[in-house]
Each structure stands twice: as C-alpha cells, then as structure tokens.
Amino acid sequence: MNQKEKRKHLFQTFVRSKGLFACFSLVLSLLLIVGSTYAWITSADERVNRTDANQRKLSAIVEEDFNQVFHWSPGTTKEKNVRVRNTGEMPTIVRISLKEFFVGFETDATDNHGAGDGNGNLKEFGTPSATTIDVKKTNTWVVGNTYGVSANKHYKASIALVDQMYPYKGTRAIPLPAIELNFQAGKVFDQGTPPTVSDTNYWYYEKGYFYYSEVLQPTEVTPNLLDSVSLNATYANQHKGALYKLVPEMDAHDLTKELINDWGIHTTNDHAYQLYKDKLAK
Predict the structure, then answer these.
(1) Is the dihedral angle over the CA atoms 78, 252, 136, 120 positive or is it negative?
(2) Between the CA of residue 170 and those of 206, 208, 248, 271, what are the distances in Å?
(3) Do 176 and 161 form a contact (C-beta atoms < 8 A)?
(4) Is the pLDDT assigned to residue 19 strictly greater than 50?
(5) Which of 22, 124, 179, 196 has its CA 20 to 30 A from that of 51?
(6) How confident is the model at residue 214 (pLDDT cuts 50, 70, 90)?
(7) What does pTM read for this prediction?
C-alpha cells in the first residue's frame, strides 16, 4: 500500500468513527463541568474558587495579638486583638463568630467551723480520671475529668461550658458574664445601635455573627473587632483556677450571589443582606 492509499484508508476510518469520537468528547466535557461545579460548591470550605472564569485563590485568616495568661487576677484587663486579613488573590466578604469555652473545678467545702464555706482552695485528687483535660483540646473539657498540675495533684471539673457562641449584648451562662469582651469603640454596631450613613469599615452583629461591612481586597486587613478581655472584679472565688478559651471562627466568601443562601441572610429584614446585596455579582 503506497502513501496515498494509506492516507485514504486513515481518512475513511476517521469518518466511520466520528460518531463515537463526538460521543467521547461530550462525555469528557460533562465530566469537566461536573468537576468544576463540585469544586465551586465546596469553595467555601476549600477557600478556593475554581470556576473557568476565575482561577484566583480565595483565602483569609484571623490575626490575633494575645499572650496566654496563666494567672489572671479579677479586676484586670488583657489585650486580645482580633481582626481578619485577606491573604488571597481576589476580593472577599468575611464574618466572625466568637466561641467561648470554660471549665471550672471543685473547691474544698470543708472547714473547722461547721459553716461549710471551706477554705476556697481547689480540691485536690491524687488519681487522675480516665480521660484528662488537655488545655489545647476543648473536647476533653468535661465535668468529672481531671486536670493535672503534677504527678499526684489533680483538679476535678465541676462545671464545663463548651462551644458557647458569644451573644453580643445577650445573656451568657454564669460565670461567663464576669469575663468581659471589650470591642473596638465606634466599630461594632447592632440593631439597637445602628451605624449611620457615614460609617464605614465596621462590624455589624446579627444572629451570632459579626459581619464586616466592606469588601476586603487582597492584602487588606479589617479594623479590630476585639481589643481586650477583662476579668470583672466581682469574679467569684469559687471559680478560681478555671480554664477559659475564646476562639474566633471566620467565614470568607467570594462575591457571588450564592453568599445569600450560604450564609442564610436572604431576607430583606437582615441587615447583612442590605450590606452585601449590591456588592455581589449580578
């Protein structure tokens, strides 16, 4: 078979199989679309937008200025700055919720006078519980678990409050109200204290979340949401030696309309909806 006959044979083979080739191409395209759509749906978790139109990275982080306090006296204030920085390559909208964790320990209720007031010291146990409290693992902050301060000295948890979403100006379980969060003056608003038309770059509290009012551009940072934390002078002695942790949790979203449903702010009564509805892609 000469070269001319070979080319003719290849052409005829291609023509006869073009239906199968087209079918394969269609299946491949659908797989790519489904894959892109799935990646886009999960972008809120992955902090990545993978649509064909935009390959830029969506990323933001919480920045904190805070040193762990080992001995915190009632009536004192400790600095704890909380803000958000856009570390990605595209604009983003962010919100923060604050979660509180607290575990207190049994106090010695025995005394020599029969009053039952005790000496106010933490009750000591020589043997640890099966599961012990780890400062870094709040899932171990459970009533009955012990916290070891030495090989033969342990404190037993008598109260545990975990994963408590901070309600701005709302009611908190005792003794959390004695731990006062100090927000940046003039930068945090809510329904009772709404912003004015001239206010910008602020946080608005609604339904458990602090929403940042502006679109955060790459490398930009928000003003502080939180400036410091105070331990009230009336903090009860019975809670001495307790462990407390404040955890800011941040959500970042791209400027797509899906933010409305993803964050559940789709009613016109939501201030967050009014904040963002004109900032999102049409």
Answers:
(1) positive
(2) 11, 10, 17, 18
(3) yes
(4) no
(5) 22
(6) very high
(7) 0.77
